[in-house]
Every structure is written in structure tokens, then in C-alpha cells.
Amino acid sequence: MMYYEFAGSPKAKEMASQIKKKGEESQRAMEKAGESMKGMLSQKSEAEQKQFEKKKADLEKELGF
Questions:
Q1: H-type helices in 1-65, by residue range?
Q2: 31 burial via Cβ count (<10 Å: 0-12, 13-18, 19+)
Q3: Which residues are CB-neighbours of 16 under 8 A, at least 6 positions away?
Q4: What pLDDT does residue 7 have?
Q5: Quick check: 4 and 16 in contact, CB under 8 A?
Q6: What is the per-residue pLDDT across 6-20, written as a single tens digit (0 to 9) for each?
Q7: pLDDT (tens digit, 9 = 90+) per residue, 22-57?
Q8: How far is CA 63 from each of CA 13, 49, 50, 51, 54, rounded to the nearest angstrom?
Q9: Contacting residues for 15 by C-beta, under 8 A, at least 6 apart
Q10: Nearest CA to 1 among 27, 25, 22?
Q11: 4: confidence class by pLDDT, cuts 50, 70, 90
């Protein structure tokens, strides 16, 4: 990347611009994927918590608490 920035030719500048653009696109895609994974994990965690509470309530009911 540094080579293209310092080369000075129009073609090198264009290449540097394309590399930066693709890097930014990749970064945005990674951020979206991260947010998606975070959402999936929080939903799974909520579902597991509800299941735990239900089992806990059933056990307490069975034991007479």
C-alpha cells in the first residue's frame, strides 16, 4: 500500500484508492457480521435463561418450595 501512495503516478494513486475502498468495505462487512453474531448470542442467552427459569420453577414446585 505504501508503495502505491508514494509512487506518484495516476495509476498508482488509482490503485491505492481501490485498495482503501476495498479495505473500508471489508471493515463494514466485518462490523455487520459482528453485530449479527452479538444479536444471535444475546437471543440464545435469553432463551437459555427462560428455559433455566422454567426448569427451576418446576423443580421448586416438585420439591415444595
A1: 2-7, 10-63
A2: exposed
A3: 1, 4, 5
A4: 67
A5: yes
A6: 667 888 788 888 989
A7: 999 999 999 999 888 888 888 888 889 899 999 999
A8: 74, 21, 20, 18, 14
A9: 4
A10: 22
A11: low
Q: What span, in angstroms and rounded, lies between the C-alpha atoms of 62 and 65?
A: 8
Label residue 65 by pLDDT band (50, 70, 90): confident
Burial class (CB in 10 A: 0-12, 13-18, 19+), 25: exposed
Could you identify the residue written with the cell 435463561?
A: 49
CA–CA separation, 34 and 30 (whole Å): 6
Residue with C-alpha cell 490503485? 15
Residue carrying the nine cell digits 433455566: 52
